[in-house]
Amino acid sequence: MRNIKGLAFNILLLANSFEVIPMITLSETLKAEARSLRWPLWKRSKVPPAVTSLNLFMFVKYITDQIVYNAILMKTLLVSTYVPQKCGIATYTRDLIQAVVGYNSNITPHVVAIINGKDSNYPPEVKFKLEKNSRDDYIKLADRVNSSSYAYVCIQHEYGIFGGNDGDYILDFAKKLKKPLITTFHTTLLEPSPNQKHVLKELARLSQSNIVMIKEARARLRSVYNIPSRKIKVIHHGVPDLELEDNTQAKERLGFRADDFLVGTINLISRNKGLEYVIDAVKKVSMDIPKLKFVMVGATHPQVKRAEGESYREFLLKRAFDLNLNGQFKQVNEYVPLNSLVDYLKALDVYITPYTDLDQTSSGTLAYAVGAGKICISTPYIYANEILSDGRGFIVPRRDSDAIAEKLIQTYTNLTERKKMQERAYKFGRKMIWSQVAAKHIQIFKDAKTKT
Known about the structure:
α5 runs parallel beside α6 and α14 packs across α17. The chain is of the alpha/beta class. The chain is built from 18 helices and 13 strands. The chain folds into three domains: 2-70, no CATH class; 74-238 and 434-451, 3-Layer(aba) Sandwich (Rossmann fold), CATH 3.40.50; 248-432, 3-Layer(aba) Sandwich (Rossmann fold), CATH 3.40.50. It is 46% helix and 14% strand. It comes from Candidatus Roizmanbacteria bacterium CG22_combo_CG10-13_8_21_14_all_38_20.
């Protein structure tokens, strides 16, 4: 019996060391006994007399239950657009999955990919496909998930990626779902339409936890949508773990000169990006910063391209031509993969997001730029307001090329201020690296399992 007790305790401690059984969930008596047994696994000479047969039974039962339950916990299902779709949320979900698996390789995330008629060659983690505009698909998906071994479901929410009026088909899925639901809201409108408000409020009500990326979004969930604070978690948009380094070599690798002053944006191109105001600003500072180059990286957004073709891009190119920018404007008309995105980001001196939509509550590329310690110039959409506060970047009025030009000159001429701002941004970005974001998501997954 003594050897069996010792073996049981060692199994418990070994499981705890791999976080299979969190000690905090044990009763105080069992925690005290476990603490007294923290000896190396090869030293089995003594077992404290406090260990009773009843406690041994409780230990063994607890170990068995937890190992089985945690094995189920590791099966995670995310509902989202997904790569190779050209969509910011698709990329975010892919990066989140990679970060979660990198943090804990025992977790097995699978994906429900939202499609819109055209199917894609999806990677193996995509186990289900949801036709965006088929209401029956949402109900059938809920039935399939309910009969599966997935422990919980995570929805990445943006009104436009789901079918129905303001994406309300997702409510059919959520209402029928019997698994714990966690929802990440990528948009929280300050002045939603009545139906937009209903969709978000109902989805948040049906969710056990609701994730947003900034404090202002949390405040909106409380004040506009009446979501209880206990159901809201703030987790930053993840960023790669990059070094704060000189960008000379990065410029040369991309074919620029070391002394070029590179201002850039990396995005899916659409009219609400406000890029014409950067082009105008480049012309205004061309005498003050003769080696400035504006680098516009990104394909036209697929939905924009379907609706209006390349008319906005053609408008931008004509504007640059009319202003005689010549070698001061470079476009990279492609959807760049993550490694190329990072290469361009490393090379830039200034990252700019001159968006005209001020209701945007997340921006992956602005997050990446802050994480890389870049000087950032942005219009005051709510994500930028929060991320660039406390001297981490410049905020300028929207549609104001004069203000952009002023900040470009200020950045170019004041090297001391530039370095301090880069350091402040980089320090803040350490809170946003993907490993930390993954750890916080995993804790929410564990909480969802515990409360079920």
